[in-house]
Amino acid sequence: MTFWLGFLLGAYLLLMTGLGLYAGSRVQNEEDYLVAGRRLPLWLAWGTLLATWFGAATVLGSSEAARAEGVRGTILDPFASGLALIVAGLFFARRIWEMKLLTVGDLFARSYGRKTELISSIVQALGYLPWIAAQYLALAAVLRHFSGVDQTTAIFGAALFVMFLTMSGGMWSVTLTDTVQIVAVLASLVLLSVRFTTAIGHGSIAEGIGETWRQTPPELRTLLPQAGVVALLGWSTTWLNGVLGNIPGQDLMQRVLASRSGTVASRACILAGCVYIAFGLLPVGLGLASRQLWPEELPRGSDGHVMLAMAEAFLSPFAISLLVVTLLAIVVSTCTSAMLSPAALLSHNLLNRLRWFNGRKLLTNRLSVALVAAMSLPLAMATDEILELLESALAVGLVALLIPFVAGVYLRPRGELPGLLSIGCGSGLWIVHQLAVYFFAAETASPGPLADALTAIPPELTGLVASAAGYVLGQFFSRELAPPSTS
Asked: Which residue among 88, 185, 278, 324 is least enclosed by CB atoms within 10 Å?
């Protein structure tokens, strides 16, 4: 296995490096770097969307969540996240493409003003850091399991390689490497799923799937919430977080803006969402199936990762090596997208305000990538919870940016105040609620009605309501302060 792993990993690194350098040769200006010159056809736009979403949380995180909690534990990924792509394609892609923007920050600048552009870009850029850190952790888990590389080395190696690919060609580099990698990823998942189902189904894939379903307890086979108001609130918030928290994301809208036309952007989102859910069911199914093989706990040496344990049980050394490389490809493809998104906001909407940077746009874009890569490293060192990092990243979009984003697309905001109040109220109350829950959960805190209420209501829901209220108040006060019309 060591030979095959080294051979495939070397071939992968050479291929990605070549694609990155080729993509760099196609970049002539900032529009090329940030949105690939708005020239992506359907197959490239669809490929990069799917690769961006189909990340470590989908393959490693959802399989582990399915084993621990059943199908209900995988609501966020793949179901809600896949639905987010479909919603974006149906209601936002065409409108956003027709605005001819470069970043989501440009939408806030056009709809509200420069101050809202500044605040929203900072908030969203910071929200991507946990997502990038989650990809570092996933890569470290794979490398530590199969090659013995320590976690710190794996994290730093991931950051350097991803930074190179992203810096070299921007959106062109990300798109080309994404499309190649997602094909290999899906093929490997199908291979592992087929090998497993035929093994337990005595040569029949259909029988293997049926056996897995029959052996899974009914309470683990449903997406419906558990009984009780608290469970319903948490379940609903997870759906809101996954579906709507993704909508204002720079990573999603950057691919919309890079598409050849509004029609291509819309179709790419819908197609990617449908394929994402379909293929996302594979790690979910493998997670459920692992309970039949290992009812108590996973084999020693699997580091708690279902996919790694299943690979060692059912694949040949060559196939295991191929899966390892494709798992690395998942991390790299998602991470390049996640890294480019905040870097675009940082360079185009923040640093370009300064004269020196505004005159050196391509250099600023590449320097911003390096800065984002460095800023995400401390988070990866501080935690090892992949899905928790992903949920934190999504929550920022939901509580701070969703309402002003939707209003900027569909409504007519009255100046800066609605946007600023919406972002400030949503994120501020979300943070306060999070801190309050942490305080009351501490051992020294005394339980009571207030503590029960705060812990029962998800902070994301509080933040979303506060953001909507802030926008309405901003609209009202903007009307009161506006001079009377002379028309």
From this structure: 278
Are residues 121 and 346 in contact, defined by beta-carbon separation less than 8 angstroms?
Answer: yes
Q: What are the distances in angstroms from CA 368 to CA 166, 349, 377, 379, 412?
A: 10, 11, 15, 18, 32
Q: Going by C-beta distance under 8 Å and a sequence separation of 6 or more, which residues neighbour residue 84?
A: 242, 243, 244, 245, 246, 247, 252, 273
* Reported confidence tier of residue 387, pLDDT bands at 50, 70, 90: very low
Residue 162: per-residue pLDDT: 85
The answer to whether the CB of 31 falls within 8 A of the CB of 102 is yes
Angle 343-401-84 (CA atoms, 0-180°, nearest 5)?
85
Under 8 Å between Cβ of 270 and 48: no
Helix, strand or coil, per DSSP, at residue 40: strand
Q: What is the pLDDT of residues 142-165, one digit of tens each?
A: 677 666 777 788 788 878 888 888
Enumerate the β-bridge partners of residue 124: none
Backbone φ, ψ for residue 224 (5° rounding): -70, 155
Average pLDDT across the chain, whole number: 85
Distances (CA, A) of 283 to 55, 184, 311, 387: 12, 15, 12, 15
Which pLDDT belongs to residue 372? 94
> Which of 133-142, 190-199, 384-393 reaches the highest mean pLDDT?
190-199
What is the 8-class DSSP label of residue 247? Answer: T
Report residue 204: phi and psi, to 5°: -115, 125
Mean pLDDT of 175-184: 83
Residue 82 tokens read as 């896949």
d(Cα 255, Cα 65) in Å, to the nearest integer? 29
CA distance 290 to 64: 9
State the DSSP string of 74-116: GIIIIIIHHHHHHHHHHHTHHHHHHTT-SSHHHHHHHHT-HHH
Tokens 């070397």 correspond to what residue?
10
Residues 6+ apart with CB under 8 A from 221: 70, 71, 213, 288
How far is residue 487's CA from residue 485's CA, in Å, rounded to a whole number? 6
Q: Fold for domain 2-385?
A: Sodium/glucose cotransporter (1.20.1730)
The pTM score is 0.89
Residue with tokens 């570092």: 136
Give 427-461 as a DSSP string.
HHHHHHHHHHHHHHHSTTSPP-HHHHHHHHS-HHH
Q: Is the dihedral of CA 81, 87, 90, 92 positive or negative?
A: negative
Whether the pLDDT of residue 216 is over 80: the answer is: yes
Residue 470 predicted with pLDDT over 50: yes
Residues paired with residue 259 on neighbouring β-strands, in sequence order: 40
Greater confidence (143 vs 486) lies with: 143
Handedness of CA 16, 18, 20, 23 (dihedral sign): negative
